[in-house]
């Protein structure tokens, strides 16, 4: 795996820490800003909305710009957004700073994903994406719990300052190790109209729906994990960083597992991971009042949720192989549609007085719907594959492995 891919993973560690750390500092932030827990939870949705809008827009806007230069600019803007959040005098200012940071984060994810898959062979795409997603997992193991500790002992603003420093470290790494790439010319020159054609494929939309629902299922719970642990399970606030770290350990294990098996068992990884998340969320909803169960199931949810992440990313690059930049942007947007819907729905059920276990039921419903959509996508995939084989005069036994769901090469990729 090229060193540049690991540098991108390191940068994603900073991005992921900022995106997820609010789950560990939600209560002190809400108290300081004078807002309710559901209102503070909307900051998670604000970041997600910025990611949804920013990923495709910035991917399209920077399509013909050198990718390394784009990555440097976006990471610099993201770091400045963290400084603005640390200095925010009010909730509206903090809200805006989260949206701006999210826009830069989204653009970095979209371009970074395209760079990562372009640097490795086709058969290693899921592993390359696992390195990037692994940055999120490590963020959950180290960054988010560290942010919670900083929030508890030095104030929630210190967590934003810490992420600003991480962003600077990532920026140095990108400048030093990500290779310079020239803008393609001639037939390989990116054309927005041509790349937009991927949205005519219903498999793209099915992949998007599964990704969004999977993200929503996880973040309906994760955004409110801290109050669930303290208010429902009865754990002390000092336990929150530990449980967040356990979720991160599970996420790292799941990312590693998914990265190892997704290249050869793409649909099986997606279906198995989302189905397992559904079961975990149902059991958590039923046993959230038991401290040991809540802690153990938080760990298990990290494993199941992140096992699917490399596979979902690789699946999008397979069905949108003619538009690698928009494929990365589209996956990022879909994931954050879920990150927007999940905390919003979670806030609704909490505000309705149904209690914190209701967010686990909400997540289970979203995950169950993702299972149904994945099953339909598998059926559509096999149907379209069989039709192509008949048109070529071949039998299903002669179908190459890539056509059974693994990532296909992108035309003009180098």
Can you walk through the features of this model?
The chain is mainly alpha-helical. Helix content is 78%, strand content 0%. The C terminus is likely disordered.
Question: How far do the termini sit from each other?
Answer: 15 Å
Helix tally? 15
Largest sheet: none
* Average pLDDT number: 80
Shape: globular
Which structural class matches the secondary elements? mainly alpha
Please compute the radius of gyration using only Cα atoms. 20 Å
Number of strands: 0
What sequence of helices (H) and strands (E) makes up the elements? HHHHHHHHHHHHHHH
Q: Which regions are unreliable across 5 or more consecutive residues at pLDDT < 50? A: 395-414
Strand content: under 5%
How helix-rich are the residues, as a percent range? over 70%
Record keyword descriptors for this entry.
414 residues
What is the structure about, briefly put?
With 414 residues, the protein is mainly alpha-helical. It has helices spanning 3-20, 22-33, 37-61, 67-87, 91-118, 125-153, 157-177, 192-195, 202-222, 225-232, 240-261, 266-287, 291-319, 324-351, 357-392. The longest helix is centred in the last third of the chain and has 36 residues, at 357-392.
Give the secondary structure arrangement, pairings included.
Elements: H1 3-20, H2 22-33, H3 37-61, H4 67-87, H5 91-118, H6 125-153, H7 157-177, H8 192-195, H9 202-222, H10 225-232, H11 240-261, H12 266-287, H13 291-319, H14 324-351, H15 357-392
Helix pairs in contact: 1-5, 1-6, 1-7, 2-3, 2-6, 3-5, 3-14, 4-5, 4-7, 5-14, 6-7, 6-11, 6-13, 9-12, 9-13, 9-14, 9-15, 11-13, 12-13, 12-15, 13-14, 14-15
């Amino acid at each position: 795996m090229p060193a540049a891919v690991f540098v991108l993973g390191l940068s994603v560690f900073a991005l992921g820490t900022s995106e997820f750390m609010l789950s560990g500092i939600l209560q002190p932030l809400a108290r300081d800003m004078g807002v309710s827990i559901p209102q503070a939870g909307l900051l998670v949705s604000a970041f997600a909305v910025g990611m949804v809008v920013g990923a495709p827009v910035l991917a399209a806007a920077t399509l013909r710009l050198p990718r390394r230069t784009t990555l440097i600019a976006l990471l610099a803007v993201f770091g400045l957004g963290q400084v603005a959040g640390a200095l925010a005098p009010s909730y509206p200012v903090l809200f805006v700073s989260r949206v701006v940071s999210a826009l830069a984060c989204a653009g970095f994810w979209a371009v970074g994903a395209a760079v990562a898959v372009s640097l490795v062979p086709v058969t290693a795409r899921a592993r390359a994406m696992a390195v990037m997603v692994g940055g999120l997992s490590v963020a959950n193991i180290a960054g988010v719990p560290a942010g919670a500790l900083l929030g508890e002992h030095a104030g929630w603003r210190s967590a934003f300052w810490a992420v600003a420093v991480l962003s600077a470290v990532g920026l140095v790494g990108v400048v030093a190790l990500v290779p310079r790439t020239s803008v393609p010319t001639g037939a390989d020159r990116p054309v927005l109209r041509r790349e937009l054609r991927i949205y005519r494929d219903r498999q793209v939309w099915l992949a998007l729906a599964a990704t969004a629902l999977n993200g929503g299922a996880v973040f309906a719970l994760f955004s409110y994990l801290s109050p669930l642990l303290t208010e429902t399970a009865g754990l002390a606030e000092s336990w929150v960083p530990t449980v967040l770290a356990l979720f991160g350990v599970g996420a790292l294990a799941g990312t590693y597992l998914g990265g190892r098996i997704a290249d050869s068992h793409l649909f099986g990884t997606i279906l198995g991971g989302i189905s397992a998340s559904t079961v975990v969320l149902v059991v958590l909803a039923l046993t959230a009042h038991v401290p040991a169960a809540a802690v153990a199931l938080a760990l298990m949810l990290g494993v199941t949720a992140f096992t699917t992440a490399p596979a979902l990313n690789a699946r999008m690059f397979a069905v949108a192989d003619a538009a690698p930049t928009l494929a990365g942007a589209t996956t990022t947007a879909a994931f954050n549609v879920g990150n927007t819907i999940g905390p919003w729905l979670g806030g609704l059920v909490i505000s309705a007085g149904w209690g914190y276990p209701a967010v686990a039921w909400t997540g289970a419903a979203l995950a169950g719907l993702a299972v149904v959509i994945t099953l339909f996508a598998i059926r559509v995939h096999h149907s379209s594959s069989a039709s192509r084989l008949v048109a070529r005069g071949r039998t299903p036994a002669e179908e190459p492995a890539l056509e059974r769901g693994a990532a296909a090469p992108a035309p003009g990729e180098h």
